[in-house]
Structure formats: structure tokens, C-alpha cells
Amino acid sequence: MADKMSIMIVDDEKIIRESFLYWFEKYGHRVEAAASGMEALEKLEKSPFEVLFVDIKMPGMNGIELLGKVKEEYPDTTVIIITAYGSIETAVEAMKMGAADYLLKPFKPEQLSLVMEKVTQQRKLVSEYRYVKGRLEEFTRFENIIGQSPAMQEVFDLIPEVAQSDSSVLIMGETGTGKELVAKAIHAKSKRRHLPFIAINCGAIPDSLLESELFGHEKGAFTGATHPRKGFLEVVSGGTLFLDEIGEISPKMQVDLLRVLEEKKIIRIGERQAIDVDFRLISATRRDLEKEVAEGSFREDFFYRINVIMIRIPPLRQRKEDIPLLVEHFLQKYSRETVKQVDHISADAMRVLKAYDWPGNVRELENAIERAVVLSKARTLKREDFAFLRSPPEPVLKSRSLKEVEREHIQRILEDCDWNVTRASKVLGINRVTLHKMIKRHNLKRP
Amino acid sequence: MRSQKRRIAVVPLGEVPGIVPKSIAAHILGYLNVNAEVLSPLRHPDYAYDPRRLQYNAGAVLKALESHSFGRYEKVIGVLDVDLFVPIFTYVFGEAKQGGKYALVSLNRLRKGHGEGAFVPEPIYLERAAKVALHELGHLYDLHHCSDSRCLMHFSGGLEYLDRIPLYFCRYCSVFMRDALSRPRHRRSKG
Ligand SMILES: [Zn+2]
Ligand SMILES: [Zn+2]
User: How many CB contacts within 8 angstroms connect chain A with chain B?
Assistant: First the structure.
């Protein structure tokens, strides 16, 4: 998690919006602008923003009204008021309503950076607190890698092979596909298996904290560093380091880690002496890092270091034949864990589970089974027990062309029918020849 | 080898002490190993004067630079002696669009010493101008502001901050700068 923030500028004056945009681009923050309070609220509904700069005087909804709404609906958002000379009283009122600070425009550049520093510090404390809390509560419920599909068999075959070598491994797969399990399996079969396995989720940890977590620090290296502490790169001593969500780390951290991988040495924060380290690195990501390297947003040299061996875990929707096996496993697990005797599933319910797309993959399936078991009053899970799965109509559909919708629908039906064209054409109500033509036209390929 | 292909232009806008653009060009060559040439001056930016603020609008000057053709130069640094502002700020020492081609360095405030009416000796004045120029050039090569206060890319608002930052990039920013300079030319241009 890099120190970049998402910021929105709300001001009816274009030149003001633009100068803020240009300024924050220089920090690499994600910045967007809204010309009115209404537009700001619409944007907030679509994606979260950490900081809002709001002009007090705007036609329509004024800054104070917007502040009230934002504080009510998004209390975690930091709001900074921008105001011209002569409306300081309103600014003071805004502070009482929960604005974090105000700026009288035009202001000195250093005033804005002071405000941003304050905001950064505050948000850092909050996210560090959340991270530490999360770490204490965290335990992996999702325990087994299961599958007999060819795609998963390939992964299983790879694990012992990869475990033999000491090269860096990159595991690619969507959320919930079990990347950490594969990493653990590799560790368990490797010569390092009696040494520690340490997992860090780079997406959940603030950059500042990640640095001291990995490298450790000397006493007094920064405020709060009252004791020297060993970093995980040292603690792992000979074991396996698993960095999940590696795509989230900042460019600076990429430079640091690249150096460690090349030199096998680290320097604790606030220290001078280098320490030798020995570990095997396994990283994982759900992002398309190859694409990001090509675009220049992820370091190429670092990518090649972490990606000596690549393992791709297929999403659940591409290996639907594994669903019954997984369902069976989770059913047993949760009927054992709960006092309830729920150990069967109806054919109808299974069809629902097989038809669903599982964007959250195996983890979502596990959660669904757990939920159904807890709520079920009978011994057998029925179709109705999974009513919550019926996903709401996709909002993206709105902006799609007929052709795109057609393509997607055909693909979905084909997948449901395991690419049996005869069956799929019946479902679609067209003949086989037409379907073949459509497959060709849309360039659909069997996964 | 590559540094010979890259060229940076340093162009005075109106009258500026001749030694300043030369010193900036020398710093660019010395610190980044990229050739910088001082071009003959362009007109004084009176078109960018804002009578309400009694200052010059940095955005308007950048726009004027864009309309000029600096074909063989990869980046262009305009040097001027007037006081610059952007709409939200009371003043700026320099201005550049992130990842862009043109940057500005204003010398107007860089001469001031620490007391009322005091001036700094010339070497400090030149060093300040070089710091602002290299910092803005960093933005042109898409370097962001750096949180390390011992780095040229650290944002420094007032003169006391500008004097405190060193005349070099931190370890990370050096790497990012080296990366940017090793990328083939013209691959990215964000305007
Ligand atoms: Zn800057
Ligand atoms: Zn730096």
C-alpha cells in the first residue's frame, strides 16, 4: 500500500480545480475534480475518496451543505474547506461541523503541504491501527486446495517441482483462489520446510509500516521506535517469505526489495551495518503485472526478479467441474463445526452453485456454504438456501453495446454447457451452424 | 552515448542575469549527464501579467512556451525574473506539469537574504536557481514529490526550506531519474 491518496477537489471555478489537479499530480495522488456539490456526491457514490477539498461558495449546494452530507454518509473522509477572504466565520463553523482544516485562497504553497502533512499523519495512524488490529484477528479459514480439474492438476504437478528449486515464485490468480495455500504447499515441500513461513499482505499494510515490518529498525529510528526490532526479512532466517498483493507496493519499496534480492543483505532503519539474510521469496498478485510492466507502472527489473517461476491459478468459474468436490468438503467441514446436521445438498441447489460465476472464487463458495449451513433448518440444503447468491443486475450493462452483451451471453451459456455446442444452441434457441458462426464472429475460445 | 541524443533547452524569458541560465545548464550536465544548451532570450512575458495580483501567471507563460517550436529539445526550461503565481498559490519558485515538456524557474524571490532588504551572495543565489531547475526537471521526467527532506524532489515552499534541501536526489529519486533517462525518447508525452 503506497502512501498515495485519493483526493477530490470540489470547486465551481475551473482554474482552481485545475491548479489543484496539477499540484497533486506532482505527488502521484489520484485526483479528481467536481464542479458542484451534486457532482461530488455522485463521484463519492462510485468510488471512495480519502480527502475532499471543498469550496464554501458554490451555486446550488454550497460547501457547508456538502460537508454536512459527506460527514453523515462518509464520516471517514477528511474534508478541507477552501475559502476566500471575508468568509472566515463560515470556515470556523465548518471546523465545528467536522472539517479537518481550512485554507484561505490564495495560500502559500507551504500552507497546503502543512495541511497535507497533517492529513497524512492522521490517516497513517488510522491505517496502522487497523492493520495491527487486523493482524491480531487474522487467521486463514480457507485451508484446502481441492480440485480434479485439469487446470488444478497442473498446479498440483507444479508444486513439488517448484519446491525443489530455490527460485522466486510469482503466483497469479484472482482473489479467493487460494494463492497463499499454494505458497504454503510449496514451502511445506521445500528444503526450508522446518524454517519459518512468514506471510505479509502488502495491500493491507501502510507503506511506512511495511518498511519497518520487513527491515526492522533501531531504537529511536523514528517516533515510537522505543525498542530495536528485527524485521521479517531477518526473522524469516532461512525460511520462506510470502508477499501477498505484491502489486500494491510502492515504487520505492520495489527499489528496496530489488536490492535485497540482489545483494541478500539488509540494513535496519536507522542503522549502518548490513546484515546477511537468507530466504526464499514467493509473491502473489491478482493484478496483471505483465501489463503494468509494459505500461511502465511496475518496475521491470523487479518483476523479473520475483517472477523466475510463474504459477497461474484459474478462477473457479473456469473449473466449474471442481464445484461439487469443494461443496462436499465445505459441507462436511461446517456441519462438523456447527452442531447442526446439515450434510446433503439437493441437485437443484447444486445446479444453482454451478451456474453462479463466483467472482470471489473458492473463498466466496466457502462463505456461501457456511452461511447456508448456519441458516438451514433442514438436513439438506435446497435451492432457496442460496437465494442470496442471485447477484444484482450488473450495473456495467448500462454502458454496453448489444454486441458486447451478445458475446458475453453466448460465452456464459457455452461455459455452463461445458462448451457442448449442441446443448448450448438448444439453450440459446438457435441452430448449431448459427452458433458456430457466432463463436467465430465473437472470437470466443474454449478456456 | 544516450546523453548525446537528449538535449535540454534553457531559455531566458525577458532579461535575466546571463550567468544564471549558464549555471543551470552546467548543473544539468553535471548532475544528470545530459546536454543542456542556453538559447537566445524570448520576449518578456508581459502577456501573462495579472493586474489584480501584480504578478505573472505561470500557466499563461507555460502556454506561450508550448506554442513555440523547440523540436530537437526533449525538455525546455524557461528562466525569468518576474514573480510567478498559480491560481491557488500566492507565489511559486518554479512550475512544471507532471510528465510534461516545459518548466519555469522564477528568480524573483531567490535573491532574498534572511533579513529585511538583505541579499544572499551570488553562489547561494545560483545554487537556489539550480535546485529549482533540477526539481522542476524532475517533474518533467515524471518524478513525484519525495517525502525525504534530504532530497531535491522534496517540496520546499519557502526559501528557508529551499536552502535546507541538498543539491542532489535521494537514492530512490536517483533510481527513478536514471530509469526515466534510460527510457527511449518520445515514448511518453503527456503534454
Ligand atoms: Zn515540485
Ligand atoms: Zn527523493
Answer: 69
